[in-house]
Amino acid sequence: MRPDWEAVVTPVVDYALTRDEIAPGEIVLFGYSLGGYLVARAAAFEHRVAALILDDGIHDFHAAFAAGLPPFIGAWVADGRDDVALPVLGMLMTGSTQLRWGLRNGMWVFGAESFADLIRMARGYTLDGVAHQILAPTLIMDAENDKFLKGQPQLVEEALTGASTTLVTLTEDEGAGEHTHAGGLGRAHQAMFDWLDATLGA
Hints:
By secondary structure, the chain is an alpha/beta fold. It has helices at residues 6-16, 35-43, 61-66, 71-78, 82-95, 97-110, 115-121, 152-159, 185-200; strands at residues 28-32, 51-55, 138-143, 165-170. It has a four-stranded parallel β-sheet, with helices on both faces. Helix 8 (152-159) links the parallel strand 3 (138-143) and strand 4. The radius of gyration is 18 Å and the shape is globular. The two termini are 35 Å apart.
């Protein structure tokens, strides 16, 4: 995993533009979950993208991640006090399936050596200083009951000063109020494709 996702996306766009079946002016980036940060970061540097869909929008992954932990954990990790932080994280994981999955999966995905290392690595995943460089029209998806990214889509909308933005919040009543609209993807896809039709003039 790496925060500078333009290093991944730009070679893909380079290749896509060599393909006859690709419409050069209609390339769309779609980011799902953490991908909502990754493709936004890429679009800050890759301006051949015609539109951007963030499901959900993430301005600062570390802040979203840290919001699910007691504040003293972040302070200990920042101070390098892993000897204190790691046992407490281990204890918290025994009572929270969500935290246990998040930390273990995060270590695997990020290649972190410890839970504390994972928390430190997440600091690099922010749109601070680059969000204004995003120029493509952007659909920012938000889920009413998102337990992981609450408030992050709104921060993305505020930060994208160089792009036209549309923020869509899908709700529990629609069956699409959970993280990445799990259980209501048909409703989410309706919102996305309607927006694409309007944005790309299909």
